[in-house]
Task: inverse folding
């Protein structure tokens, strides 16, 4: 968590109610201070600070050693800033936590269920997941399989660096809450089938942890995230015809079989959210 949030004075003056609500959220510092640009140099650099402002001069000065959120305005181009909102009311504890994790290189956990936490993959897990995907017989119908360790490592590094931040979703590592044990992968990914783009639910639970309801549990959490956070209306999944357990899970999650899509017996399913 950030130690402190500092807000540019003109932003604070226009959004008093929004900042009072922000202070009351558990994932935010209880103290939010109002400052002007001349006060930034006097703030202790040892603290983990988030600045919120709406002018270039303020944000440029604040962002030298700290995380910032730009509040967009009609007079200045603030789009180059990675984290920007149209309204202060768009900032909540989840968004603040996301920025904290991104800035300090911590794996963000977008989905939490009763027994599991889904976190962004580290390099080791990403490489294992990509190796697993490349071994599937139908993968060549949707993407070029990664053929060697070097390709897998390069792709994994790029995926971790770019995909989560750009899309706001991806494939996540699944951990048990009570033990922190890594038990599989699940998440949302993009796929192209015959020049049509699909948003896909993917899930894989390690063999020793199967038949315990984990796949159904984490996928339910992901579907809620897709609907509430991303605003998805339709989501798909692809399952091998021979994978009876995964097909049963998909049906339990209210996916409907659409069609067989290739010679390797892959089936396309749809769930309307």
Result:
């Amino acid at each position: 968590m950030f130690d402190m949030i500092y807000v540019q004075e003109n932003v604070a003056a226009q959004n008093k109610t929004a900042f009072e609500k922000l202070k009351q959220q558990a994932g935010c510092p209880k103290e939010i201070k109002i400052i002007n640009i001349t006060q930034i140099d006097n703030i202790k650099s040892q603290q983990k600070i988030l600045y919120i402002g709406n002018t270039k001069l303020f944000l440029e000065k604040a962002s030298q050693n700290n995380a910032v959120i730009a509040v967009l305005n009609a007079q200045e181009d603030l789009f180059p800033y990675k984290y920007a909102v149209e309204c202060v009311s768009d900032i909540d504890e989840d968004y603040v936590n996301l920025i904290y994790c991104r800035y300090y290189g911590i794996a963000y956990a977008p989905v939490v269920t009763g027994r599991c936490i889904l976190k962004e993959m580290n390099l080791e897990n990403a490489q294992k997941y990509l190796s697993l995907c490349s071994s599937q017989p139908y993968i060549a119908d949707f993407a070029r399989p990664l053929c060697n360790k070097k390709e897998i490592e390069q792709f994994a590094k790029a995926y971790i660096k770019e995909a989560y931040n750009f899309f706001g979703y991806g494939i996540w590592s699944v951990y048990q809450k009570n033990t922190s044990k890594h038990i599989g992968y699940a998440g949302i990914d993009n796929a192209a089938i015959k020049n049509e783009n699909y948003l896909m639910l993917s899930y894989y639970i390690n063999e020793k942890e199967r038949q315990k309801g984990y796949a159904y549990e984490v996928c339910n959490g992901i579907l809620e995230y897709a609907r509430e956070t991303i605003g998805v209306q339709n989501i798909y999944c692809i399952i091998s015809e021979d994978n009876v357990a995964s097909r049963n899970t998909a049906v339990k999650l209210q996916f409907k079989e659409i069609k067989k899509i290739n010679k390797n017996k892959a089936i396309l399913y749809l769930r309307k959210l």
